[in-house]
Amino acid sequence: MVKALIYVGIMTAMPIYAAPQNKMPAPAEISKTYADLADFALASKIVARVRVKSARPLNAEMATGVLPGFQRQLVTADVKTLIKAPEAQPAQTKYLIDLPLDSRGKASKLRGTESLAFALPGRPGEWRLVAPTAQISWTPAAEQTLRSILTEAAQPDAPPLVRGISSAFHSQGSLPGEGETQIFLDTADNRPASLTVQRQPDQPPKWFVSQGEVVDDGVSQPKANSLLWYRLVCFLPAQLPAAVTTGQSAEDVQQIQADYQLVMGALGPCVRSRPAAPAH
Asked: What is the pLDDT of residues 35-47, one digit of tens each?
């Protein structure tokens, strides 16, 4: 049995056995972005580096609901490193995965490859992937990014889950071109969070994120590929909802919308290689 990890400070790995000298890289049929890794990692109870021992295609009767262009396979894998788990896990596990088919109708060979698997506990000796394709090729960089995500998420002051925008206001300053926009975020645990854009005459606008009751202009902007960045760029709406500026002048609404687009443009795009996952 593999003992479960408990997050205290920096997570550590628990290797099951020494890696073979000539290990095969996992196929690149499922690409990975920061958002993909965060989607899967935060939805999972179990995250592990595995080496596929065997992968057997299932017949049509046992593969109901598989999307066209995919093939469902039953994977048996050795658990090399248990990165996250609620309790001890067997050294070997089984799970189902949907693999894309190439132009010849063939799926990539998984046997002997190493991957990162994202799962929930199933029956004894079995896992359930959090999505049909929730397995990605293992690389040192992917594992490092994954560990960073899980470490940030385990901290007491981890960024809250953002569900949208609750309200937005603009206050004009005493000088032409001076003003401040505050955009208050709707969070899953009702923790206060907001975006602020400040403008001064003849100066570039300044924006920042606050996580607390007090707006703190000393807070730095979120670093790309960080958990706070992910919570914002991947879950805020592309356009400011009209309802959050109800009752304000047309001029103020126009400024709020411009300032919101300024922030969203600075954050950049949320790039996923698959449809958006539910927020976690």
From this structure: 999 999 999 999 9
What is the mean predicted confidence (pLDDT) over 241-246? 94
Cα 205 to Cα 136, 171, 176, 252, distances in angstroms? 40, 14, 14, 16
State the pLDDT at residue 20. 32
CA 32 to chain centre: 11
What percent of the residues of the chain are helix, what percent strand, and what percent coil, each to the nearest 5? Answer: 20, 30, 50
Could you tell me if residue 108 is inside a domain?
yes
Residues 40 and 144 in one domain: yes
226 assigned to some structural domain: yes
Asked if 142 and 37 touch (Cβ cutoff 8 Å), the reply is yes
Whether the CB-CB separation of 205 and 198 falls below 8 Å is answered with yes
Phi–psi pair at 257, nearest 5 degrees: -65, -40
Is residue 93 assigned to a domain?
Answer: yes
Indicate whether 211 and 120 sit together in one domain: no
215, 98: one domain: no
Alpha carbons 199 and 205: distance in angstroms, whole number: 5
Span 168-223, pLDDT tens digits: 999 998 888 899 999 999 999 999 999 999 999 999 999 999 987 666 655 578 99
